[in-house]
Amino acid sequence: EYELYKAVTAYINEFMAHGTGRRKQSVALARTVIQRRLASSTNAIFESLQRRFEKQRKLLEELEVLPPKQRAIRLAQIQGRLSDAELDEDDLDDISRDELIDEFTVAMELDQIREEIEALRELKERGRRVKDLGRDSKLEALRQCLNQAQFSELKDGKGKLIIFTEHRDTLTHLLLHLHEWGYTTCEIHGGMNPHQRKQAQEQFRTQAQICVATEAAGEGINLQFCHLMINYDLPWNPTRLEQRLGRIHRIGQKHDVYVFNFVADESEDGQPIIEGRILSTLLLKLDQMRAILNDRVFDVVGEILSLNQINLPEMLREAAYDPRRLEDYIEQLQDMDPERLKSYEQATGIALAKSSVDFSDFQKTNVEVEERRLMPKYVEEHFVKAAAAVELKTEPRADGLWRIPHVLADLRSDRLEAVRQYGKSESSYKKVTFHKEHLDQTRHLDAVLMGPGHSLYAAVDEKLNAALEGTLGGAGAFVDDLAEAPYQLHFFEVSIRGQDSRGRNIPLFAELIAVRQEQGLGNPGEQFSILPADCLLDLPSHPLPPNAIPVLDGKPASDFVKISHQMEMRQQCQKDREHFAQVCREYLEKSFSARIRAAQDRVMQLCARERDSPEMALARQRAENDLEDLKSLQKERMAGLSRLSVARHGPVRHIATALVFPAEQMDSAQLAALAQEADPALRRRIELAAEDAVIQFENSRGRECERVGHMKIGFDIRSLASPDPDTGYRDPVLGVRRIEVKGRKRGQPIRLTPNEWYKAVQLAETYWLYVIWDPLDNPGAEPIRIQNPAKHLDYAKREVVTARVFEIPAEAICKFA
Question: Cα separation of 319 and 332, whole Å?
Fold first, then answer.
């Protein structure tokens, strides 16, 4: 293997020496591609040598029959294939790379091509002998690596491993051997379209132990269910390394991430592998700098190299061409100064941008976002009912999940926008779940998570919306057992819009809200209030026939939304945008000042060199042009900031209206099923007294409380612990309590609405049930506190279907006293 390495390196240096003019970049790129395939695998370099041999042989046959003039033109075409001096090897796709190293030549005469063909003939035979020996040291290193403790979970089906390689030939080579070793695999590569990659991602999550991928899996794919990575080939572009790690080391990752980087830095007898020695030096240096950079390494490696004026791809190319410079390059890497990154971030305003983030406020916003997240139970109910409406059969499984035996061709048709956006769904699904926690269970690793964003869910939703289009703006009837008089709930889609820095219209904010309208429509005493859209979930339907429900005019409520809620949202968006624009302005001023100073220094340096070397005139003129372009860009970007601070009203769309009746207007049987207390006013006094007691209890323990019961989000009080005074950090579980308060006469059962129970299931350890017996008689009573009641009281709950509640007996509550 090492002899092959030396022979290929010698071939590159002889037949792809440094070019000049238009072909300089093509030569550099061709050298890079071959060097990287040489480092990738014996299979990759053998296949590349064989293809190049055949292409060069055919090129010779083609040129031999051409007249001298046409022959020169044809050679010039091949040599000038890549004229973009800024093009990097990573900018090429697999086809372009293959064409480059298969067809490109620096030869000017036919004899030079003949010499190269003979050299290639010998090289490919040497490569074939190495392959036939069956000893692949890199592959053996992979096998040994897979036997390490970190990979033990692969064997029991729990673990997932992604292996990155640079080349399709190596990918094929790895898949073959991984199958022989007994692993289940899948692949992701540049020859797959986005939908195929998405399907491969799902296959990896549900079926395969190992995914072998090229750079095509380095961007746009979330693989946080995987926490093991092997870089079988290390990219020369450090940004690629960042992108790879970002696929698994991201928000949502629940495990420590292990990344193994494969680098061969010397032969068995101690001879240096040029590229490997440089890359291993870089990795060791990055590891040494980890503490100084506060554990940042792979996400800033590109900036560190750039600030220390190290061009890694060029260094690797030059070292292979002139190994005598290897020690100089290693010394440059060892002398890298991580402090330059901190100085740069301070100078360009990046540190300013980071310091502008209010972490405690960000965490509180996250808490509210988590509370409003779609509840899996409602997503499940919606999909099952929607599937029935569009004639898609769903079957419950014995383990509590679902199966879909056959997906109709209509739901996989290219005519659907959902299919064009998300791709076609599978033709059937053996195991479907709507709950993320199922995917963490060993027995459900092969389950498919269904929800918004899934191709089948989107297709069903699109078909359902088409079928229900005629009902938009209609009305339905419901019952509220707490109401004393009828009221209406109008549902609106509200949006705020703005512009980006280039003047393009973008949505800034959008939500679905409910407007409660007290008393009858047209009454001068109309009163409106804003509620969350899911407030309807706890209300049972009224037995009015559909033809008896009037279609109501929602314009008064729409006007109220525009002059109140939408106005407040626009003002908040305006405030946020102004803050954002100010941070951008300060950052850009610092950043452009630093860049313009550097560009001016470069112009001055070139002017000084031009006095001694007139040939520098072109470089000096280019630097002056770059400086002017930078100033123009600064002016353009600063002018665009004024657009960022503007927020304006978007459309307010009426979706539907609900007529809500109090329980007293129903018959005695329905009233008995719905009413928990004889006197709604007394019930409200009891609830308020219980809430007051809970707030007093929480405040006495240094926690900050907010009443949120009116928002109908499944609990009554949000209680937050004080954030850390130094960092602003608040523990995501211990720092927040969502408290559902129940004040009851001692011995009475506790009833939770479906919305409250499902919210308890969703929020788990952060959801608390506080029960106070006889709060009117015991104002200072200490509440019975039950964390995660959905877990601890599930055994005792009884579903009362007619009243749409889950009832828990008092004795089950008292066990926690």
Answer: 13
